[in-house]
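Researcher: Here's the sequence for the chain we discussed earlier.
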Amino acid sequence: MNLQSTDFELFGIPVQFAQDRAQLDARWKELQREAHPDKFAAQGAAAQRVAMQWSVRINEAYQRLKNPIKRASYLCELNG
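Model: Thanks. This is the structure I predict for it:
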């Protein structure tokens, strides 16, 4: 995963307006499980901070992608 990836790249979905909400929800849960800060508790504070950054990034992307108006606006942004 790369913090600079687009929301679509992050979620591994096609760059298009039409999205399968169930697939989007499932992918969000999967990504959150991978990046949850508690999962990195044994690795120290630095690892938890990075995990928190990922968690925030995933949530922000999810909010944009699940909302049709925000998704349309984001697609416009990506395409200039």
